[in-house]
Fold this sequence. Notes:
Elements: H1 2-14, H2 24-27, E1 29-35, H3 38-45, E2 54-63, E3 66-75, H4 78-81, E4 88-90
Parallel strand pairs: 1-4
Antiparallel strand pairs: 1-3, 2-3
Helix pairs in contact: 1-3
Amino acid sequence: MQIVIQDNQIMNMLECNRALPANPQKERVVLWKIFRDQLSALEYSHHILLEPDQQLVGGHGFDSAGEFYWLGVEVEDLAAWGHPHAIQLSDPFEAEDPKIQGRGFGNEWH
């Protein structure tokens, strides 16, 4: 039952029109990932482990390729979290080959 409630909360968050972090340091978003469909974002959310001072953030928007959804981790205190230059963006898109989801953390370009 708890998973169903969490999934509903995440789906509701993904339906909100919210742009990607324009200023990650100011917004305290230290990690985010972009998806082309809601279900992929929802599945990814099942693998995010949050500390007590962190929360899941996200939404959807549009770019030249169409609609996208994103999920990220917002921290309470960026200074306590770590160095602001350690903020990581996971780019799931490979411009040269659209069939490839791109690079994740620790993965090389395909």
